[in-house]
Amino acid sequence: QSQVVESGGGLVQPGGSLTLSCTTSGFTLDDYAIGWFRQTPGKEQEGVASISRSGGNKRYGDFVKGRFTISRDNRKNTVYLQMNSLNFEDTAEYFCAVRRSLIGSLDPTDYTSWGQGTQVTVSS
């Protein structure tokens, strides 16, 4: 069974850091562009970051403002989202999604498979 799996969420204080990971079972990430998205109750889903299949092209949501970095290690079949300087507004469920394309996208409708999400809570 093919699955996308996120991990790394948790509780962090404002100004802190977390690294989220996305991996798969049943298929490898080599042929896919990857996107990270987030959602809070009552709000629309936001595109956080995306990375191309090669890793050479990256996109970020405007709200990221240099705080987050997306990267991938195809040898480990994993995509990472390093998040620094977290604030209360970053509290959300974070989702990883895959897209069989060279280039990533911040539009969630471009993605075909999704993980179950990992919760990030920023609280003092």
Task: Draw up the topology in text.
Elements: E1 3-7, E2 10-12, E3 18-25, E4 33-39, E5 46-51, E6 58-60, E7 68-73, E8 78-83, E9 92-99, E10 113-114, E11 118-122
Parallel strand pairs: 2-11
Antiparallel strand pairs: 1-3, 3-8, 4-5, 4-9, 5-6, 7-8, 9-10, 9-11
Summarize the structure.
This protein has 124 residues and is mainly beta. 0% of the residues lie in helices and 48% in strands. The protein has strands at 3-7, 10-12, 18-25, 33-39, 46-51, 58-60, 68-73, 78-83, 92-99, 113-114, 118-122.
Order of helices and strands: EEEEEEEEEEE
* Low-pLDDT segments: none
Per DSSP E runs of 2 or more residues, the count of β-strands stands at 11
How large is the radius of gyration?
A: 13 Å
- Overall mean pLDDT stands at 96
Give a description of the structure.
This protein has 124 residues and is mostly beta strands. The protein has strands spanning 3-7, 10-12, 18-25, 33-39, 46-51, 58-60, 68-73, 78-83, 92-99, 113-114, 118-122. Strands 2, 4, 5, 6, 9, 10 and 11 form a seven-stranded mixed β-sheet that branches. A hairpin with a 4-residue loop joins strand 7 and strand 8. The model has no long low-confidence stretch (mean pLDDT 96).
